[in-house]
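S2.1 Query sequence (E3 ubiquitin-protein ligase UBR7)
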Amino acid sequence: MTDSFDEEAEPAYTIDQYLEGIEEQELEADMVLGGDEGKECTYSKGYMKRQAIFSCLTCTPDGNAGVCTACSFSCHDGHDVVELWTKRNFRCDCGNSKFGVGFCKICPNKDVENAENLYNHNFRGQYCTCEGLYPDPDLEEQVEMMQCCICEDWFHEEHLGLESPDEIPRDEDGEPIYEDFICQACSGACSFLSVYPQIMLATCKDSAASKSEGHNVENALPACVSSDELENGGCIGDSVKAGCTEANPSSGVTVKTLEGHSETNLQLKECTKAFYTQKGVGFLLDQEDSIVEYEKVAKQKREEKLHQQETSDSSFLNGLGHVEKIEILSGISDMKNEFRSFMESRDPSRAITSDDIRQVFENLNKKRRTE
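Output structure tokens follow.
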């Protein structure tokens, strides 16, 4: 009987553990949303360099439209919404022609269509070469995926084209260590990237993978230039012009983990930057486009928000009269005393439940009514 009770008991947490968990969840949300509080539609900002995007399968079941954070809250609350994390060079579609008679509650005056937006199977809730769902309703514990920095699709580690996921460098907690990841199809189309230093390569088993559908990357001519030349500003364009374009399609790379490549790219010549732009991957040279920079900005916005909250709380207290301040401090003292009394009288072998906390506040209210 006792064993059965213990199995059904609520999990026990300290207040510090609970608050730490809440803070971690808030930080994770801020990192995903880029610090966007979801108060304004981003349509007026045009095609943003990077932002959090969502797909509403209730309004656009074909998965051919994306909406910003604010519209996902205000216009699609309660709908079947797919979280896509971030997308590059995207403009909010909410309320345009793809939504039929529906309109955006925040910013109703929009163009009929955003011609520069790109869509893939992620907008239908499907990911990876296996077309798997995320979250997968058949799995109790979801499998982590990696996002390609070029096509922005997500892939399971076992579907990267490696001999084994053990080839991926990891930290002491088992988490993959990489700045940017390039999938099998994109690395085949952009094979010139293989000349980068500090890069992990995997042999491509199927050259047809580089021709898979849904990847908006032009077939790029691989350049025969050394890592030293690249680091010192060597020009990929010159190598191509010189006719050095030989490549064996059966030995293309499938996955790359680039470390610090944005800093190296700053040393490249203008003609090399033009070559990247011509091949549709000019964004790889843009430090502000990376996920690292996106999360850095999100952290800065979070710190600024927390500082504003602290300043606002301080201003609120400073604006109160002497009597109001005494009442607040007295209320805090009463709450501390009630919790201390509860902790001293409780059975330490029994977990604290929500009913216990509710009783503490009921006792506190009774005492205040009798004063």
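Residues 291-318 form the longest helix (28 residues). Residues 29 and 35 are 8 Å apart (CA to CA).
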